Amino acid sequence: MGMAAKEPTTERSIQSAEPLPAIPSPQQSGLPRDAAAQVPWPNRTPPNRTIFEEFARYPTIWEGHIICGLLNNEGVPATVTFACPGPDTNGYSTVWVDRELVHRAHWILAWPAPSEAELTFLATGEMGAENVADSEAR
């Protein structure tokens, strides 16, 4: 085996590398001056930092989720957390609402529950018997 083993080199030289070319100016690259000044991607707006405030506590996680869903459906940003303080105590859920919209959340929850006539109309699309009698009397 007439092949001689090469000895490993421990030094590396980067002196033989060529220097990097200079970055051309917009006028040298042939691009319009405005094109070089604008980035090719859209400007990112900083994320809107919502500050949440504790709105209410409920004894079960489901009640918190129902209220949170109602508020989100009405356009109020809300989130729910669940806490269980210990193994022998009951957990509770906390609904958190955007600090600037707490008053609107109170207003939404102050709405009365729909009446039976409203529920019938929403379910069937027809007016209840008492509403039909009122409209015929007019």
Written account of the structure:
By secondary structure, the protein is α+β, with helices and mostly antiparallel strands. It has a domain at 52-127: Hypothetical protein rpa1041 (Alpha-Beta Plaits). It has six helices and three strands. The protein has helices at 26-29, 33-37, 61-73, 102-109, 116-124, 129-137, and strands spanning 52-58, 78-83, 92-98. A three-stranded antiparallel beta sheet has the order 1-3-2, with helices on one face. Strand 2 (78-83) and strand 3 (92-98) form a beta hairpin. The termini are far apart.
Secondary-structure blueprint:
Elements: H1 26-29, H2 33-37, E1 52-58, H3 61-73, E2 78-83, E3 92-98, H4 102-109, H5 116-124, H6 129-137
Antiparallel strand pairs: 1-3, 2-3
Notable features of this structure?
Alpha-Beta Plaits, 3-stranded antiparallel β-sheet, single chain, 138 residues, alpha+beta, 3 strands
Would you kindly provide a brief summary of this structure?
The protein is of the alpha+beta class. It has helices at residues 26-29, 33-37, 61-73, 102-109, 116-124, 129-137, and strands at 52-58, 78-83, 92-98. A three-stranded antiparallel β-sheet has the order 1-3-2, covered by helices on one side.
> How much of the sequence is in beta strands?
5-15%
CATH homologous superfamily caption of the domain at 52-127: Hypothetical protein rpa1041
Cα-atom radius of gyration: 35 Å
Q: Name the CATH architecture of the domain at 52-127.
A: 2-Layer Sandwich
Q: Secondary-structure element order, as H and E?
A: HHEHEEHHH
Number of DSSP strand runs: 3
The stretches of 5 or more residues where confidence is low (pLDDT under 50) are: 9-14
Largest sheet: 3 strands, antiparallel
What assembly state would you assign to the polypeptide chains in this entry? single chain
The chain-level mean pLDDT equals 75
Distance between the termini: 116 Å
Principal-axis shape equals elongated
Count the helices. How many? Answer: 6
Per the CATH scheme, the topology name of the domain at 52-127 is Alpha-Beta Plaits
CATH class of the domain at 52-127: Alpha Beta
